[in-house]
UniProtKB/TrEMBL annotation:
Native species: Planobispora rosea
Domain annotation VOC: ranges: 179-299
Xref: SUPFAM superfamilies: Glyoxalase/Bleomycin resistance protein/Dihydroxybiphenyl dioxygenase
Protein's recorded name: VOC domain-containing protein
InterPro entries: DUF6817, Glyas_Bleomycin-R_OHBP_Dase, Glyas_Fos-R_dOase_dom, GlyoxalaseI/FosfomycinResist, VOC_core
Amino acid sequence: MTADTFTDSTTFLISKGAAEISHPGGTLLQHLQRVAAQLNAWGAAEEVRLAGLCHATYGTDGFDRRLLDLADRATLVELIGPRAEALVYLYASCDRTATYPALRFADRFTGRPVDPSDAELRAFVLITAANEIDVVRHNPDIRARHGAALHAFFTRNRDLLPPVAWETVKETFAVRIASLDHLVLTVADISRTIDFYRDALGMEPVTFGDGRHALTFGSSKINLHAAGHAIRPHALRPVPGSADLCLITSSSLDQVAAHLAAAGVPVEEGPVPRTGALGPITSLYIRDPDHNLIEIATYD
């Protein structure tokens, strides 16, 4: 097949009225072209991209508007090839109510069970991802009603998606947490805690709100609550000494160890190899005045 196959397929879709059928984001033809473009961006095989372009030819369980009668499947086979057409039929015939919970296929046209190959399963989930991503990008109501269920479906079947597609799924459907802004420590003595974190770890004390206290470092901060006077809402059991924190330093651990020794803070353990959020780290462990465990680490 060549680029002419995609051109001929587009011409075929136009001849069947796809450019005049309304669809989220414009027309059905525009939607189909965006699905094919998304599959191309993910590096999908040619037959998968062709199936994505033509996936609505026989209608779908979510958009039951046929462009071609099932009795005329040979027409699509001749146009895009048997493997791509088989994927179009698999997508069109999928009974979503039966299939989505456990990826067990039932043909909604015949009522018979279907046993797709591993390659067909991967293509089906990939085309489904490209289709649903385009739909919700152009229809916030559908995202609001079905976004959580779609995210759950793709999460259950993430092993069938290439990593690049999974990342797009997460960007589209999942809540994305960018970073930690602040955390709260419940402490026995706020003044003693401020002195420790300022002198031993170089944090900057700040006062905010109605006389509240915090310690800032980098782009984050630690808010301090006095034991017995936690500010609502708060953790279920806000008690001193229950925290275990890992802090990344831009100083060498030799420099950190020397500074801690000068400040009279014993190193409980380290340096030892550990694993951080982004990869291997080397860590020292100390205790703050409330005996919270504080890990100070550098990335290797």
